[in-house]
Specification:
Layout (H helix, E strand, L loop, with lengths): L1 H23 L3 H18 L6 H22 L15 H19 L5 H8 L7 H8 L3 H29 L1
Helix pairs in contact: 1-2, 1-3, 2-3, 5-6, 5-7
Length: about 170
């Protein structure tokens, strides 16, 4: 019975959906699919409509009105709601893990390298003169010392970074 009803109503629904879709700004196929769904829901709860053609016309118009109402209330965002540049939880967790790994590697450096790098990259934004004063070395030795410490840090981190990328 359901199959016969669907077969009998298909041409009428296609025509009605095409006629109403333009006014609601809806796709005729979407409107048709929604009305089929409404018919199946009705068949499950109340059985077939007494006058299927009339029911179908009313259902198409009701869905079309519903789509127009929804379109009136929906407003597009002025900007994209998802900011892809903002750090999400995953990026924040990865950044925190990288910071911990970097701090741990700096702490394993020899001599005064840990203090030197911590001073250079501290949030206090110290000048070379202030860093040299804190470490008790001349300002002229600070650049070469920094280069040696960064080279040592690079060698220390290379196996860790390469190991992570291979397993990646």
């Amino acid at each position: 019975m359901t199959h016969d009803l669907v077969a009998a109503l298909r041409p009428l629904l296609t025509a009605e959906a095409r006629a109403e879709a333009h006014a609601s700004g809806n796709d005729p196929g979407d409107l048709e699919q929604t009305v089929w769904l409404r018919l199946l829901e009705r068949l499950e709860t109340h059985g077939p409509p007494r006058a299927p053609e009339d029911w179908l016309r009313r259902a198409v118009r009701a869905e079309s009105r519903r789509t127009r109402r929804r379109a009136r209330h929906e407003r597009p965002y002025g900007t994209e709601p998802v900011d892809l540049t903002a750090a999400g939880p995953e990026q924040l967790a990865l950044a925190a893990a990288h910071q911990r790994a970097l701090r741990a590697a700096v702490a394993r450096l020899p001599g005064r390298c840990p203090r030197l790098l911590q001073s250079l990259f501290s949030s206090r934004d110290l000048t070379y003169r202030e860093v040299a004063g804190e470490l008790g070395i001349s300002q002229g030795n600070l650049g070469p010392e920094r280069s040696r410490c960064l080279g040592c840090l690079r060698r220390l981190l290379t196996p860790e970074v390469a190991g992570r990328e291979v397993g990646g």
